[in-house]
Amino acid sequence: MDYKEIKALLEKYWNCETSLEEEAQLRQYFSGEEIHEDLKDFKPLFQYFKSESEISVSDGFDEKLIEKIKEKKGDGKHRYLNIYYKIAAAVILILFVITVDQRFIAVKEKATTIVQDTFEDPEKALEETKKALLLVSEKLNKGKTNIIKLSEFNKAEKVIRNKNL
Amino acid sequence: MKRLLLLIIGLLLYVNGFAQDDVITKYFSEYEKRDDFTTIIITSRMFELIAQIPESEEEEDVMNVIRKLNGLKILTSSEYPQRAELSRKAVKIIEEKGFEELMIIKEGEEEIKFLIHEKDGHISEFVMLISGDDDGDFFLMTMTGNLNLKDISRLSETLDIDGFEHLDKVDN
Q1: Which of A122, B43, B68, B86 could form a disulfide with B49 if both were Cys (CB 3.0 to 4.6 A apart)?
Q2: Which domain holds residue A147?
Q3: Global pTM?
Q4: How large is the ipTM?
């Protein structure tokens, strides 16, 4: 191949317009001995392309790789642990949601049916509370003067029960 | 993962804390709805409102007690046919739930029982049950909060208590 031809090919190459065959021609030319002075600068580049393209994996590489991948999969201890944790977390979460839900339902029901203030006016509620407290207070004090001590009462109650039986 | 578990347990306990109720709410709610029972309910919300009422000086003692209350509930009846039976049932239920008898006063047919539930060294719930035979009134009262019996019993010394014979006889 003469200088002109190669020069034209190179021009095409730099414009990314060469076919695979033409590129092969270029590589062949630059791997040869007779290279025109003007084109010597490109020699290392095309030699590099050539040498790189010749590199290949060693024999049995695919088998080894597949084996390694399989090994990783087989050692699933960590994975299983993770799954157990996930299951545990899911169960706890479900239980938690159920518990919270029930409690909120219970609270809601109570709010609508039972826990309703008898009084709307705090003053009235205060009066009633006072009455209640005073009643307790009065009865407690009555108890002080006429007290039946619990332990004694229980003893007496036992005696009476035994007699009745 | 451990931290998450602790967090969840913590949350469960926290939710549990909401479910604090008095004995009437827990065990006698079926009677609350009946026509022959009278119920008086004062909730913690109402106690918050009460606390905002300006107090007069002579009421300081009673207000001090009221401020520590969380709830007050009264269930009473003079019409329910099996009042004596209900009283016995009530005592049994309350005692089974970890309440301690504090004092019993007998006045003729009438028996007054004081029961308390202690939590962390203070009285968390106070129950007064007045019971008699089927002719007498059934009266069950429960107070929740941080209760001090000394303060309560002192109230009748400082205040005139005439006219507070029975709460259920007081008109609403």
Answers
A1: A122
A2: 123-165
A3: 0.52
A4: 0.72
